[in-house]
UniProtKB/TrEMBL annotation:
Protein name, as recorded: Elongation factor Ts
NCBIfam families per record: tsf
Pfam families registered for this protein in UniProt: EF_TS (PF00889)
Region ranges (Involved in Mg(2+) ion dislocation from EF-Tu): 31-34
Domain Translation elongation factor EFTs/EF1B dimerisation: 24-230
GO cellular component: cytoplasm
Function field: Associates with the EF-Tu.GDP complex and induces the exchange of GDP to GTP. It remains bound to the aminoacyl-tRNA.EF-Tu.GTP complex up to the GTP hydrolysis stage on the ribosome.
Keyword list, A-Z: Cytoplasm, Elongation factor, Protein biosynthesis
Species lineage: Bacteria, Bacillati, Mycoplasmatota, Mycoplasmoidales, Metamycoplasmataceae
Source organism: Mesomycoplasma hyopneumoniae (strain 168)
Amino acid sequence: MKKSDRIAAEGLVLAKKDANSVLVFELNSETDFVAKNQNFINLQQKIGELLLANDFVNLEDALLIQDEAGRSISELMILATATIGEKITLRRVFKTKYSLEQSVEVYTHSNGQIAVITILKGGNLEIAKDISMHVAALNPQYILKIEVPNEKLQEIQLEVEKKAFAEVKNFEKKPENVRVGILKGMIDKQLSEFVLELQPLATDGAVTVEKYLAQNSATLEKVVRFEVGEGIQKQNVDFSAEVNQQIQEFQKK
């Protein structure tokens, strides 16, 4: 099989920022062994610097960015493939500019398998970092409750109503406003399994992400999470659990 036909499902992700822009991208190799190779790591850092320093409109455009020697990112990967012996690809990249009114922070897990960028309106860098680490650990499916499809919300509401009548003592006899409050609490608890703003903050389980942001005059504007190999053939390793374990160890200090 030619190198160009082989699957590159391992690799590294990296989140970077400067004073004006924030970036996250995924660089793939065929094996985890090569992803730990210093030549591959150097290539990733080089590509990150080029992507952050130059404007582009899509992935194809990004591959044309040239270094100081006139070599494009595409050419740099071809040269690395020839040297390292494995197919290397720039699979995806997200980049956006931000303003002084926004708090922007990045988090790349120590093993390079998960990277997150968080953009807040207001707040500060510490809050944005907390959200990035939370998203890295828990990988919520949705950022806001309003993003959940109506069909899914209706399904959850029906399930919760049945559960309330079956498990909450004298539920049907309670005043309507009390029943509404109980149902809302039960629905939000179920939604918190996959909606970021309703989840207990990973670094402080006593407060939800929504309340934590409100307490610090911050609102979520953008969260982007990359994990190596999402959607392509790859060995199943739970890196989110590893991030969560690191957060728990940090709390014990």
